[in-house]
Design a protein that fits this description.
Helix content is about 15%, strand content about 45%. The protein is α/β, with parallel strands linked by helices. It folds into two domains: about 1-335, no CATH class; about 340-393, no CATH class. It has an 18-stranded mixed sheet that branches. Helix 3 (about 340-345) crosses helix 4 and helix 4 packs antiparallel against helix 5. The longest helix has 19 residues, at about 375-390. The protein is globular. The model is unreliable at about 1-25 (pLDDT under 50). It comes from Streptomyces catenulae. This is Fe-S cluster assembly protein SufD. InterPro entries: Fe-S_cluster_assembly_SufBD, SUF_FeS_clus_asmbl_SufBD_core, SUF_FeS_clus_asmbl_SufBD_sf, SUF_FeS_clus_asmbl_SufD. Belongs to the iron-sulfur cluster assembly SufBD family.
């Protein structure tokens, strides 16, 4: 178990928090990203960025053998004030938030036919969420989505992934100055689905970005959220929860690149695991570059192991190239139920299984409340209840 670490302004430390030149995060970023899949060698599983991923279960997304067939059905519901269009990959908005950083993301970029672009104009505050439904039809598909907010626009986006598919996609979020965007991405796939995705957020001056990633289903889900800042004053809040069952592999690899002064980031991901060979991976990379004075950042990952046979790999990485920061820190913890919590509840007449459910509900409640959409929050809590009841049966 890794304890929380905090660095006040001007302080330095070593170990899991690295300082200055020989930083592993900076090393991983040294290879330039590319839109061309040929620039990425086929991974073999020994590479740092692939060592936790069971490559054989990617169904060819990583080596070029996956061929578009069947695929997914995508529907986009835009409320009044927003527009949706379909564009080619040469549209300047496509890829502007960030280029692919691994072979699967590059394969998705070179393989999609048309990109979907949703635009919220300057000074527009949407009163209803944008809803994007991705429904698997049993085949293989590659997609690209762009969400663009003009200056001082405000919007909420809900992306739902259901059904069965072998699916790879890039999603770009472009936030103008002073814009506010909340994104909820739900992975509720069938048990045989495979989903690999890169989420790129480019945050403008004094803009605010909140991401809530929820992963339940799928045989393998590997998501790579990334944040960069276009100007000072940007804020990013990255929340995530995952419930990993027997045989599932859920992998979340985050990267926050602080290369701009006076920006803020906060990361909180929580996971629960149950069943044989349930495997969750969380990689949290935060890089504070020399130019990013005034940065304030913190990342947290907590995992609750509900049964024997489950495995968690949690690797927070914080690297700092300047001492002129507001603060920085990280924490990671993995453990079983708190016996004192269970005893407290059971001593008040609550049966053991009900007490167990209450503990898990409380564990996730903080993150689910960040969504702010009652229908989505209720659905996710019901899903958690169903997962717990299935395990108890």
């Amino acid at each position: 178990m890794a304890e929380a670490q905090n660095i006040p302004a001007g302080s330095t430390t070593t170990g899991s928090i690295a300082v200055a030149a020989e930083s592993t995060v900076a090393t991983r970023m040294s290879a330039p990203p590319s839109y061309d899949v040929a620039d990425f060698p086929v991974p073999h599983g020994r590479e740092e960025e692939w060592r936790f991923t069971p490559l054989a279960r990617l169904k060819g997304l990583h080596d070029g053998t996956a061929v578009t067939e069947g695929g997914v059905l995508v529907s986009v519901e835009t409320p009044a004030g927003a527009t949706q269009e379909t564009v080619d990959r040469d549209d300047p908005r496509v890829g502007r938030a960030g280029t692919p950083v691994d072979r699967v993301a590059a394969q998705a970029y070179t393989s999609f036919e048309k990109a979907s672009v949703v635009t919220v104009p300057k000074d527009t505050q949407l009163t209803e969420p944008i809803r994007i439904d991705v429904q698997g039809q049993g085949g293989t598909a590659f997609k690209h989505h762009v969400i663009e907010l003009g200056a001082f626009a405000e919007a909420v986006v809900v992306m739902d992934h259901t059904g069965d598919a072998t699916f790879a996609a890039n999603v770009d979020y472009l936030l103008g100055d002073g814009a506010k965007l909340t994104v909820v991405s739900v992975q509720d796939w069938a048990d045989t689905a495979v989903h690999a995705g890169q989420h790129n957020a480019l945050i403008g001056r004094d803009a605010s970005f909140k991401s809530v990633v929820v992963t339940f289903g799928g045989d393998l889900v590997r998501l790579h959220p990334r944040v960069t800042y276009a100007a000072p004053g940007g804020e990013a809040e990255l929340y995530g929860l995952y419930f990993t069952e027997a045989g599932q592999h859920h992998e979340h690899r985050l990267m926050v690149d602080h290369d701009t002064p006076n920006c803020r980031s906060h990361v909180t991901y929580k996971g629960a695991l149950q069943g044989d060979d349930a495997h969750a991976v969380w990689i949290g990379d935060v890089l504070i570059q020399a130019a990013a004075t005034g940065t304030d950042t913190y990342e947290l990952n907590r995992n609750l192991v509900l049964t024997d046979g489950a495995r968690v790999d949690s690797v927070p990485n914080l690297e700092i190239e300047t001492g002129e920061i507001v603060g920085a820190g990280h924490a990671s913890a993995t453990g079983r139920f708190d016996d004192e919590q269970l005893f407290y509840l059971m001593a008040r007449g609550i049966p053991a299984e009900e007490a167990r459910r209450l503990v898990v509900r409380g564990f996730f409640a903080e993150l689910i409340q960040q969504i702010g959409l009652p229908d989505v929050e209720e659905r996710l809590m019901a899903k958690i209840e169903a997962e717990l009841e299935a395990a108890a049966a």
